[in-house]
Design the sequence.
């Protein structure tokens, strides 16, 4: 028992050493932690403690789905920690636990392929301590999902070698956990390579079984016919594994269906290969595999290579490269070695992006790959490959030479662990937790000026490199000063932490309507185009925050002289036209298609307070042509409306349409899942002005209520609960039946 547990204790100790600043009580803050994940986790914690599921996030991008965001792990078990811990500590604990799981699950997979224990520990150390994972600690869902990569292969091996109900259930649960951990790109890499691995193992197992049967060999066809027969037989044998995978998908349906809906509504499906080719490996980054600081590093404030330091990083130390090379040269006959060598080389080739050629071909030919950024993330395959080949090579050296026994094993483990632990702090910029509560300068003035309306920072891109570092050079000369500097700019989603709703934000999977509106705002600002004032009206942006760089917005926007100049790098501007969360128009024009909408919104004749541009297809609402035609005939002055919202995902409007029909426009992102009632009667919703929500009102006074209740979540939740209930019932029935049989025998 002690010998079985000892490797896991070693890996737990290694995880604590690798993450020693977190163990000491400091908090991750750099990059996407401060700018995205920590504010999002704070919002989720607030909603959960209020007894609500965090469905809709009103604070960013005029409102965006929260449950359904592919990077939000609402249905993952680790989210339960938010009931007990503040957001920063929840991130730290989850990071420590999942980095350990990366090592533990990799050891579990490798151990059945090695004769000795030390090589399996070595491979696990390479996986959990390599720069490809440590460099991504600012992306918690990536590390969470990466933990299940080796577990997926371990359960596949179990199903191939000893198929039973337990192995089948283990595979289904692993698939569900991989998805719920909330990073679809890592899950995609795991599932695609796992499917190939399972097919390969079943093919090989079937071929081995056939070769032992003289009768089968005598009647077997030769050449191509035999290959087709073996492939068909292998596909049949894959059926139980496919059923387990589908069961796992059903278990994760509560996460999967809302996420699929958001990806469909976003601009990600329309991404070009050039847009996806954002961060990739090149010669300087690859030299950093041998010389970790060849390109400098953010930790030493001298990073000089293109892009950033962490996306193409996969430093694993020097000894693992030697062990992996030995396995590639001397153990090539082994099926495991050949498979992972090919996977590692493919990941390496894809990591070069467009310049390598293979990524361009895969982008257009591999289903699903076109929805992801950053070819360098394919280096995860290379990291996994090196980890496994390290174990195989280490094991082979011990078996084939006199370098066996406890002493050489400990020396080998030390040579692997020492560089990983030494360089781990490069990837761990941390701060005192209290620094995460720093507030931006001028916060009270911002609240006073914005009132119940939104702020907007259409020039956020100008601050991105300054805050992250010019070209991602450094983590900041001091963590507190760096955090205060970032907070003062209100870059990205920092405004969420201070309860400010924004018409701009950083969101990797934006609703398509907001992405188009955000681009239009940035272009209008650069050109000082008068259309900027109309866009501010649509998005309910009362306070425009710009860098103090001499930039002046378009006509119709005035400077706020009362905004404090000291301590903040921002200047404040407000539109001269009235701003409100909702309004009514008497005229509606139907415009379909993103290009036509952009053209209509940019037209000098367009006034959102007089005419509403309505599209039905973008928001998923059923077209009501007759209603639109009725509204279009009324050109009288619009009525009055009052907006009230007491919680995210819910709003009420008291509207007086007057003597004729009107279109009520509410400045909140139109998205499938919003339901409206007018005086208690369900009413259709429209996508108004390319982004926000419209409701057609008959004459008179009305009470309009809007609730965000996404059908994808409801259907996915039912599927997940039904699948879970069925599996639990089957396990209980099996246990009862087994106990009954045992009683009869006795």
Sequence:
């Amino acid at each position: 028992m002690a010998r079985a547990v000892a490797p896991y204790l070693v890996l737990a100790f290694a995880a604590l050493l690798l993450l020693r600043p977190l163990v000491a009580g400091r908090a991750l803050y750099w990059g996407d932690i401060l700018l995205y994940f920590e504010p999002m986790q704070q919002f989720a914690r607030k909603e959960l403690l209020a007894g609500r599921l965090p469905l809709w996030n009103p604070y960013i991008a005029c409102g965006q789905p929260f449950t359904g965001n592919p990077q939000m792990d609402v249905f993952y078990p680790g989210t339960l920690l938010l009931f007990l811990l503040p957001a920063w500590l929840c991130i730290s604990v989850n990071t420590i636990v999942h980095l350990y799981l990366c090592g533990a699950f990799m050891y579990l997979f490798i151990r059945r392929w090695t004769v000795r224990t030390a090589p399996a520990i070595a491979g696990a150390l390479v996986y959990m301590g390599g720069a490809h994972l440590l460099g991504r600690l600012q992306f918690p869902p990536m590390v969470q999902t990466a933990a299940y990569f080796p577990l997926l292969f371990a359960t596949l091996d179990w199903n191939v070698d000893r198929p039973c109900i337990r192995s089948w259930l283990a595979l289904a649960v692993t698939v569900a956990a991989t998805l719920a951990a909330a990073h679809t790109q890592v899950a995609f890499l795991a599932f695609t390579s796992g499917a190939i691995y399972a097919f390969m193992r079943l093919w090989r197992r079937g071929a081995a079984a056939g070769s032992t049967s003289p009768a089968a060999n005598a009647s077997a066809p030769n050449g191509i016919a035999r290959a087709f027969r073996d492939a068909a037989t292998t596909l049949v044998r894959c059926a139980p594994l496919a059923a387990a995978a589908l069961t796992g998908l059903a278990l994760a349906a509560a996460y999967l269906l809302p996420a699929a809906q958001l990806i469909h509504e976003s601009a990600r499906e329309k991404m070009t290969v050039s847009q996806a080719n954002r961060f990739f490996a090149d010669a300087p980054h690859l030299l950093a595999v041998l010389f970790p600081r060849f390109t400098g590093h953010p930790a030493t404030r001298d990073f000089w290579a293109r892009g950033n330091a962490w996306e193409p990083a996969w430093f694993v130390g020097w000894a693992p490269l030697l062990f992996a090379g030995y396995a590639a040269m001397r153990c090539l006959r082994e099926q495991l070695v050949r498979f992972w060598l090919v996977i590692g080389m493919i990941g390496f080739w894809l990591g070069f992006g467009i310049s390598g050629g293979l990524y361009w071909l895969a982008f257009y030919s591999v289903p699903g790959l076109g929805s992801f950024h950053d070819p360098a993330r394919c280096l995860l395959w290379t990291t996994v490959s090196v980890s496994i080949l390290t174990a195989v090579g280490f094991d082979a050296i011990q078996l084939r030479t006199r370098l066996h026994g406890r002493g050489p094993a400990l020396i080998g483990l030390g040579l692997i662990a020492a560089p990983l632990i030494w360089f781990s702090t490069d990837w761990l910029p941390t701060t005192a937790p209290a620094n995460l509560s720093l507030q931006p300068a001028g916060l009270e003035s911002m609240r006073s000026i914005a009132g119940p309306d939104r702020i907007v920072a259409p020039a956020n891109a100008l601050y991105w490199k300054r805050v992250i570092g010019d070209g991602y050079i450094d983590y900041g000369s001091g963590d507190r000063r760096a955090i205060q500097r970032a907070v003062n700019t209100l870059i990205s989603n920092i405004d969420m932490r201070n309860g400010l709703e924004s018409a701009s934000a950083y969101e990797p999977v934006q609703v398509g309507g907001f992405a188009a509106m955000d681009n239009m705002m940035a272009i209008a600002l650069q050109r000082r185009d008068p259309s900027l004032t109309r866009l501010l009206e649509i998005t309910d942006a009362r306070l425009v925050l710009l860098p103090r760089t001499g930039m002046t917005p378009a006509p119709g926007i005035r400077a706020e002289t009362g905004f404090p100049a000291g301590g903040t790098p921002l200047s404040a501007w407000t539109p001269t036209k009235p701003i409100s969360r909702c309004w009514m128009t008497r005229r509606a024009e139907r415009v379909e298609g993103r290009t036509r909408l952009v053209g209509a919104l940019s037209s000098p004749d367009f006034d959102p307070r007089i005419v509403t541009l309505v599209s039905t297809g973008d928001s998923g609402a059923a077209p009501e042509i007759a209603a639109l035609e009725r509204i279009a005939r009324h050109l009288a002055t619009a009525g009055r409306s009052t907006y009230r919202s007491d919680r995210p995902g819910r709003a009420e409007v008291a509207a007086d349409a007057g003597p004729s029909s009107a279109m009520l426009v509410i400045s909140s992102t139109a998205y499938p899942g919003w339901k409206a009632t007018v005086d208690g009667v369900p009413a259709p919703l429209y996508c108004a002005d390319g982004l926000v929500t419209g409701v057609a009102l008959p004459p008179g006074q009305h009470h309009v209520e809007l609730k965000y209740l996404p059908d994808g979540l409801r259907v996915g939740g039912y599927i997940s609960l039904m699948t879970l209930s069925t599996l639990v019932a089957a396990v209980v029935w099996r246990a009862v039946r087994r106990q009954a049989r045992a009683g009869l025998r006795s």
